Amino acid sequence: MLSNDGLGDYAHLQQSLVAPEGDLPTTTATPMMEVVAPATLSEGYIFDVDIEGTTTSVTVPKGGVEEGQSFTIPMPTMQVGLPRVNVPVGQWRDGICDCCKYGMCHNHLWTSCCCCLISAGQVITRLHLDWLGRPSTSVAQTTGAFWILFYMTVAYWTSYLVLGLAAGDISTTYDLTPFIVAIVVVRDFIWYSYMGLSIYILYNVRKHVRGKYAIPEHEQCPTGCEDVCCAVCCPHLTAAQLLRHTADYDTYHSSCCTETGVPDSVPSIV
Known about the structure:
- A hairpin with a 2-residue loop joins β2 and β3.
- α3 (116-127) runs parallel beside α8 (235-245) and α7 crosses α8.
- The strands form 2 sheets. The chain has a two-stranded antiparallel ribbon. The protein has a two-stranded antiparallel sheet with strand order 2-3.
- With 270 residues, it is mostly helical.
- It has 8 helices and 4 strands.
- It has helices spanning 4-16, 107-114, 116-127, 139-142, 145-167, 178-212, 226-233, 235-245; strands at 32-36, 46-51, 54-59, 70-74.
- The model has no long low-confidence stretch (mean pLDDT 80).
C-alpha cells in the first residue's frame, strides 16, 4: 500500500511524462528530386529544368557534375509562373549551317543574310545585354539596344549608298580628283568600321551564349578561337544560329519587325 507521499510522487511522475499541449516535437522531411546533368557543368552553375510544365532553376552542387550524372536537390516550391521558352544546355540547338532548317523564306534567315547586326540586336534583346553584346545589370544600358543597332545599320547603308552615288563609277574613271578620292576613303572607312563593329558584337554575343548555356568549344578548335573565327569568317551564319538557339521556331513564329525577332506574345527565354 502506497503512502500519501508515494501517491503524490507517482502522480508527479505521470504528469512529467505527458508533454505540455502544443510542445510536442515535430519532424519534417525535405522532399528531394533527382536531376540529370545535361552537360559537364562547374560548381555553382545555374540552369533551368522543366518540372511538370513549370520552369525552375537548379544550382550545380559542390564539385561540379559530369554530363549524364545524376544528383539530388531539395524539391523547389512549385509556383505558377510565366511560361518560358527552354534553351538547350551543353550543346547548340542545331549546326551553324542549318540556316535553311525552316525553309528559304523564314524571317530569321533573311534578317541574318541582309543585316546580321540587326539579328545580333534581336538576340541581345532576348538576353538583356547592352548594345555591344556585353552582360550588364543596368536597365538603362540594356533598354533600347536593338534600336541603337537598327539605326546604326540604317545610317550605314544610307551613307554608303549616298557616297557611292557621289563618287560615281570609279572603276572606269582614270582622272581621280581629290574630291572623289576623299569620298572613296570616307566610304571605305565607314565600311571597315561597320564590319569591325559587327564582328566585335557577334563575338561578344556568341561568347556570352556559350557561357550562359555551357556550350563547349569544338574540340578541334584552339581554345578561345571559335567565337572569333565564326564572327569573322561566317557572321551571317553565326547570327542565324544564335537566333535559332535562343528561340523555339518549332513552336512559335518568327518576325523580322520586332526587337526580339519573335511576336511580342511569345514567352521570354530562360
